[in-house]
């Protein structure tokens, strides 16, 4: 009897081992080979991968970025993701590469981008491996969620960013900007000759953080300061290319770095939960004012009212976690992107004083020296054609977004291409927005006039201009961000003149977004009325 039991256990163990080996074989070999085979049959090739690491060794040879001369601004571009450009030169604008078991498709083909933009299927989502890695920072908020979870969040949040809603936030945007103006005026007063040398990006990040805190959470930057600080630390830690492209992500191991991320996640979530719970307690005590609903209030009411009726949440799903994840996403996206957009725009205007003066004159003429407190007239903001062109050109050359990505969650046809389940598509925006075939031979130059007739007239393929993302997953806060950027620039340019500091070092780097490694250092002086 004992021998028979021993034999049975041996058989069960052998079956278990065979099952594990089979699953590993499918995941490590058959799955990736199937994806590559489907694409190679369509003439799509790329660098040969080596088992089991794919093309990781070549990608890890990336050189650290260094400052470049402002006389040759685009020399920084090759240092961002050098392998993208090396492979593009070898294999063209559509090629396949691998990071271990993960297969990636680099896309710089306008026709395919057009099909990606027009596809509304929930089966075209965010790379799931990246969602898992970024969960401590963004959870399953709208930036990372897929399927019905994403659709539910978008339907809940989208109405809050309609033009009719965001115009009510103008006063708060103006109020936060005036605080920075007073701060900079103080620096100028204390400076010699009325010219202050300032690193502007941190102040502008503070400004847009204050705006998002007030408009979305009914609090101030001071209350959200610790949240922003912890987000910044996590952002720096999680922005490595190894994490972005999914290799060597040992997020489950209790390493020193992982323990730090887990601690920051817990601390950040505790801070946000306090804001959420304080609001719930206030609602119970005083009720809600129908005329003063911010985004947090909409979240609390929308999730609680609708989540149980939609049938989209798996059993045991923590709805409060969804509220928390959305809040984390808004804190990150709302504070960082707009501040960077203003920062890069002011740098470009400092480098092109003719355009700076043209925009300033337009602002003064439109608002007749009645700034601030004049932005509720949306028609006047729409008349700022020169400013709009400058913003569009700045977002083309130095948009905060560096990559756009999609995972194909089921086999699908996009245009002429059959894309297999599991492929991750990547768009490298700085290169896409500098493609001379689309933008012309002056694609690398700052020429706002190219947008005089709008985006459709600025290039051959307007669908390849995607500073706010593409398709159904285009940034929800696009209208909010553009309004905020316009108001901030109007107030700053009507008060200050900007020129480049001789101490400025031009070194854009990837930190989830496109950030100035050494800050943007400008010389700032007060605008005299005669300058307008």
List the helices and strands and how they pair.
Elements lengths: L1 H39 L15 H4 L22 H10 L2 E6 L2 E6 L2 H9 L5 E2 L2 H6 L1 H4 L8 H11 L5 H4 L3 H21 L4 E5 L1 H17 L3 H17 L3 H4 L11 H31 L8 H16 L8 H33 L1 H15 L10 H5 L2 H14 L4 E6 L3 E3 L2 E3 L4 E5 H4 L3 H4 L15 H4 L19 H18 E5 L7 E4 L1 E4 L4 E6 L6
Parallel strand pairs: 2-8
Antiparallel strand pairs: 1-2, 3-5, 4-12, 5-8, 6-7, 9-12, 10-11
Account of the 3D structure:
One of its GO terms (cellular component) is membrane. By secondary structure, the chain is an alpha+beta fold. It has two domains: 1-41; 42-531, Cytochrome p450 (Orthogonal Bundle), CATH 1.10.630.10. Helix content is 55%, strand content 10%. It contains 22 helices and twelve strands. A five-stranded mixed beta sheet has the order 1-2-8-5-3, sandwiched between helices. Strands 4-12-9 form a three-stranded antiparallel beta sheet. Strands 6-7 form a two-stranded antiparallel ribbon. α10 packs across α11 and α16 packs across α18. The N and C termini lie far apart (100 Å). Mean pLDDT is 87; it is low at 307-311.
């Amino acid at each position: 009897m004992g021998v028979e039991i021993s034999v049975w256990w041996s058989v069960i163990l052998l079956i278990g081992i065979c099952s594990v080996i089979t699953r590993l074989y499918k995941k490590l070999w058959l799955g990736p080979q199937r994806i590559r085979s489907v694409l190679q049959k369509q003439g799509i090739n790329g660098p040969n991968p080596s088992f089991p690491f794919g093309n990781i060794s070549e990608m890890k040879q990336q050189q650290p970025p260094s400052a470049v001369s402002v006389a040759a601004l685009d020399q920084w571009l090759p240092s961002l993701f050098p392998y993208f450009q090396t492979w593009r030169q070898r294999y063209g604008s559509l090629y396949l590469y691998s990071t271990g078991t993960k297969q990636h498709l680099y896309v710089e083909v306008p026709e395919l981008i057009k099909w990606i933009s027009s596809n509304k299927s929930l089966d075209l989502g965010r790379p799931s491996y990246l969602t898992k890695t970024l969960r401590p920072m963004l959870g399953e908020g709208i930036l990372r969620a897929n399927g019905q979870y994403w659709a539910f969040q978008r339907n809940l949040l989208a109405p809050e960013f309609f033009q009719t809603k965001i115009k009510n936030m103008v006063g708060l945007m103006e109020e936060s900007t005036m605080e920075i103006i007073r701060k900079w005026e103080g620096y100028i007063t204390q400076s010699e000759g009325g010219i202050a040398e300032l690193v502007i990006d941190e102040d502008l990040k503070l400004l847009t953080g204050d705006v998002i805190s007030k408009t979305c959470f009914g609090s101030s930057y001071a209350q959200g300061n610790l949240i922003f600080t912890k987000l910044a630390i996590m952002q720096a830690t999680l922005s490595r290319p190894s994490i972005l492209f999914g290799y060597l992500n040992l997020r489950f191991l209790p390493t020193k770095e992982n323990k730090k991320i887990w601690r920051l996640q817990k601390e950040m979530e505790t801070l946000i939960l306090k804001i959420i719970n304080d609001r719930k307690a206030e609602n119970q005590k005083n009720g809600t004012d129908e005329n003063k609903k911010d985004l947090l209030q909409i979240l609390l009411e929308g999730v609680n009212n609708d989540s149980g009726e939609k049938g989209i949440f798996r059993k045991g799903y923590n709805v409060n976690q969804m509220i928390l994840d959305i809040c984390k996403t808004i804190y990150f996206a709302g504070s960082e992107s707009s501040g960077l957009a203003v920062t890069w725009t002011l740098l470009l205007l400092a480098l092109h004083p003719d355009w700076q003066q043209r925009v300033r004159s337009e602002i003064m003429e439109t608002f007749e020296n009645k700034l601030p407190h004049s932005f509720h007239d949306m028609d006047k903001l729409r008349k700022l054609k020169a400013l709009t062109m400058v913003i569009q050109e700045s977002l083309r050359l130095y948009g905060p977004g560096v990559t756009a990505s999609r995972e194909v969650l089921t086999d699908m046809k996009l245009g002429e291409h059959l894309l297999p389940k599991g492929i991750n598509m990547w768009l490298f925006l700085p290169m896409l927005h500098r493609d001379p075939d689309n933008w012309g031979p002056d694609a690398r130059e700052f020429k706002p006039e190219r947008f005089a007739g709008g985006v459709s007239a600025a290039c051959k393929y307007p669908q390849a201009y995607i500073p706010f993302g593409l398709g159904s997953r285009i940034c929800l806060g696009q209208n909010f961000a553009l309004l905020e950027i316009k108001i901030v620039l109007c107030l700053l340019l009507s008060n200050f003149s900007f020129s480049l500091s001789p101490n400025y070092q031009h070194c854009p780097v990837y930190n989830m977004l496109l950030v100035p490694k050494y800050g943007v250092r400008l010389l700032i002086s007060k605008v005299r009325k005669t300058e307008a």
